[in-house]
């Protein structure tokens, strides 16, 4: 198990953790099966149900396919979750991943290797590769025509899963590529904002830009000169907006604000989920909405110094209490 002593939870939000969980489970599969068999002999009802589920070839081939496909996305997912992520570089890497997935989808050698790995893992526990029961008319299960288990699982599982990944990558990143060109307006990359980037950005943010193309061009030229003369250059979009005078650079300001609202990754949401688990635990299950919001604000703005003594004084002066907080 590569020095890992326990299985990982299949995370619902983080693809990186999901890939690690599947890899760990695949390596620990023999240990899991033997453990479930021992528990089943002791009349453990849940162990029997889990053993029946993992002892199906359908489960094993799905495990192998998902673990392999998600492994290709690990580095891209980690890169996207970086707070200082370069989205243009991420787009280029996304195109590489898409090309790799498309190449493997049509490469029979890749599928044959995956299917053989599933067969070897299944045969160790006397599980034979098989095709689910098929009928002439079937609505609630894949009924693809196939002569062998390999052909069936390639059509109904592998191709479908890879196509889903390709569609998600294209919809979430590739489709939004014209809008991401505006990242070159950031001070540290403003000299890379060439004519091509200008035209793409103007067309993508035409509704947010004040004036015509010539007005926006003149504003971008002033914007470029300003940051070439500056000693300190902000890195993120949020910091750049704080340094931007919306009256002097109205179109650039609007473009940056619109760019800031684009959900480039799930990292922010995942961090908020993790914070919420720390704020609202099982011991605080009866917490009211007002207190939860206040705790969330304190956590979000943790960099602000809070005078605890002053807060106690304000709390004590709100109304008369049995306890004396102020001495």
Provide a descriptive summary of the structure in words.
By secondary structure, the protein is mainly α. It has two domains: 15-176, no CATH class; 178-260, no CATH class. It has helices spanning 15-27, 29-41, 45-54, 57-71, 74-80, 87-105, 108-123, 149-174, 177-180, 195-204, 213-229, 237-242, 250-260, 267-279, 289-300, 308-317. The longest helix is centred in the middle third of the chain and has 26 residues, at 149-174.
Question: Can you give me a brief rundown of this structure?
Answer:
The chain has two domains: 162 residues, no CATH class; 83 residues, no CATH class. It is 62% helix and 0% strand.
Report the count of strand segments.
Answer: 0
Total discrete domains: 2
Count of helical segments? Answer: 16
Globally, the shape reads flat
Helix content: 55-70%
**Low-confidence residue ranges:** none
Average predicted local confidence, pLDDT = 83
What gyration radius follows from the Cα positions, in whole Å?
A: 28 Å
Strand content: under 5%
Summarize the biggest pleated sheet. none
SSE order, as H and E? HHHHHHHHHHHHHHHH
Span of the ends, CA to CA: 59 Å
Secondary-structure-based class equals mainly alpha
């Amino acid at each position: 198990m590569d020095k890992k002593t326990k299985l990982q939870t299949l995370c619902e939000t983080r693809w990186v953790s999901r890939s690690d969980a599947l890899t760990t489970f695949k390596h620990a599969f023999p240990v899991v099966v033997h453990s479930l068999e021992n528990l089943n002999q002791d009349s453990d009802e849940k162990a029997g149900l889990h053993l029946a589920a993992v002892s199906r070839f359908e489960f094993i081939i799905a495990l192998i396919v998902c673990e392999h496909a998600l492994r290709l996305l690990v580095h891209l997912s980690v890169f996207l979750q970086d707070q200082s992520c370069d989205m243009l570089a991420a787009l280029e890497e996304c195109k590489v991943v898409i090309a790799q997935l498309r190449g493997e989808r049509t490469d029979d050698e890749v599928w044959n290797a995956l299917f053989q790995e599933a067969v070897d893992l299944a045969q160790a526990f006397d599980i034979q590769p098989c095709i689910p029961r098929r009928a002439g008319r079937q609505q609630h299960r894949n009924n693809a025509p196939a002569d062998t288990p390999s052909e069936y699982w390639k059509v109904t599982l592998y191709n479908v899963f890879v196509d889903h990944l390709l569609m998600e990558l294209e919809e979430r990143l590739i489709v939004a590529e014209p809008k991401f060109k505006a990242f070159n307006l950031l001070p540290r990359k403003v000299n890379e904002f060439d004519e091509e980037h200008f035209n793409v950005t103007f067309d993508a943010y035409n509704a947010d830009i004040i004036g015509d193309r010539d007005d926006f061009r003149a504003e971008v030229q002033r914007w470029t000169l300003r940051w070439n003369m500056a000693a300190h250059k902000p890195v993120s979009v949020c910091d750049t907006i704080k340094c931007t005078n919306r009256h002097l650079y109205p179109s650039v300001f609007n473009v940056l604000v619109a760019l800031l609202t684009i959900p480039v990754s799930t990292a922010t949401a995942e961090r908020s989920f993790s914070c919420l688990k720390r704020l609202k635990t099982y011991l605080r299950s009866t917490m009211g909405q007002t207190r939860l919001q206040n705790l969330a604000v304190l956590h979000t703005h943790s960099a602000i110094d809070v005078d605890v003594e002053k807060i106690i004084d304000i709390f004590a002066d709100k109304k008369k209490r049995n306890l004396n907080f102020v001495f």
